[in-house]
Design brief:
3 helices, alpha+beta, six-stranded mixed beta sheet, globular, 124 residues, 6 strands
Amino acid sequence: MDDDRVWSFEKSLWTGGSDHYRELVDDECLMALPHPPYVFGGAQAIEAVSDTPRWSEVVIDDGRIARPQEGLIVIAYSVTAKRGEETYEAHCTSTYRRLSHEEWRVVQHQQTPRILAPAVDEGH
C-alpha cells in the first residue's frame, strides 16, 4: 500500500460509517482509547468505535509510516477531527496487516488526546 493510500485508509476510519469500519478493523484488533474501559479487544474494539458518530472533517498532521516487514504497516500521526461544534485533537498510532493482495485490516489503534503543556517562563 503506497503512502497516499495509507493516509486515505486511515482517514476513512474517522469519517466512514459503521459498516465501513467493521469491514476494515480486524476481529483481533486491540485499541487504547481515552474513555472507559480504555483498553478494548476484538469485537469490543469494533463496537466501541463503530457506534460513535463519525467525524465530518479530519486533518492528519506529522504523519509517519514504518514498514518493519512485508505485510505490516505502522503509522503515527496527530489528528484534528471535527463534527458540528465539537473538535477532538489527539496523537494516534495504527498498525495494519495484509491479509491478501490489496486487502488490509487494522490490528492495533491507540489515541492519546492532545494535552497542552503549560507555557515555559524563560525569564525565571
